[in-house]
Amino acid sequence: AQSVAQPEDQVNVAEGNPLTVKCTYSVSGNPYLFWYVQYPNRGLQFLLKYITGDNLVKGSYGFEAEFNKSQTSFHLKKPSALVSDSALYFCAVRPEWTRAGNTPLVFGKGTRLSVIA
Amino acid sequence: DGGITQSPKYLFRKEGQNVTLSCEQNLNHDAMYWYRQDPGQGLRLIYYSQIVNDFQKGDIAEGYSVSREKKESFPLTVTSAQKNPTAFYLCASRERGSYGYTFGSGTRLTVV
Predict the structure, then answer these.
(1) Would you give the end-to-end CA distance of chain B in angstroms?
(2) What's the farthest any 2 CA atoms get from each other in chain B?
(3) Residue B88: C-alpha distances to residues B18, B56, B108 (Å)
(4) Which residues 23-52 of A are in CB contact (within 8 Å) with B?
């Protein structure tokens, strides 16, 4: 069964500094990887995904993530953090298409990012 | 505008009552999902449906029930058998052939 680990419950970073939110995964076969962001009392918003191809994926709001197959990681990064980036971030994984059909996304527990002015 | 609508936004349930959470989408998506969110536990899958009149249990289906009589609707019933129903419930949908999900804004259920 697939799983996702987000080892940090909370990440604090000063505005203007680079940020990294960590994610490692476990899945049979090739992974489909996603990052979502959640603001208070709201649903999740899609940030970016890795399906295949270039290991560096660029997404919304200046975020990017690097797929590292040997380390089974998919860390979220941004070169310069904004106070408005403060939110809850979720990493998610599912295996590539199988004959069993579509497998639902499995989410990590989330990492709360706090950007301090 | 296309999207997913969850209602109500806030719901209060008395002990022993069943309550139904609504999820409606006008995106023409085939698959729909219900997740439960608790602080520090992330999102856990309750039920999902890939086509009309078919659905599968997720990781925490006990105490919940669903139906999928129409493509655009996937209501979730929280029964009295669910011992700890207070949580934030999220509905999502996915278009056939796509990879990511579109989420609704959620329903916060509180037992009083």
Answers:
(1) 35
(2) 42
(3) 16, 21, 4
(4) 32, 34, 36, 41-46, 49, 51
Q: Please name the member of B42, B58, B104 whose beta carbon is closest to the beta carbon of A43.
A: B104
Q: What is the pLDDT along chain B (112 residues), one digit of tens a residue?
A: 569 999 999 999 888 899 999 999 999 999 999 999 998 889 999 999 999 999 999 999 999 999 999 999 999 999 988 889 999 999 999 988 777 899 999 999 999 8
- Contacts with A43 from chain B: Cβ below 8 Å: 4, 6, 90, 92, 103-106
Q: Does A3 touch chain B (CB under 8 A)?
A: no
| CA contacts within 13 A on the Cβ side of B51 | 2
Give the chain A residue nearest B50 (alpha carbons): A102
Residues in chain B closer than 8 A to A45 (CB atoms): 103
CB atoms within 10 A of CB B112: 8
Residues 6+ apart with CB under 8 A from B47: B33, B34, B55, B56, B57, B58, B61, B64, B66, B76
DSSP state of A60: G
Read off φ and ψ for residue A33, nearest 5 degrees.
-120, 145
Secondary structure of residue A84 in the 3-state scheme: helix
Closest B-chain CA to A9: B40
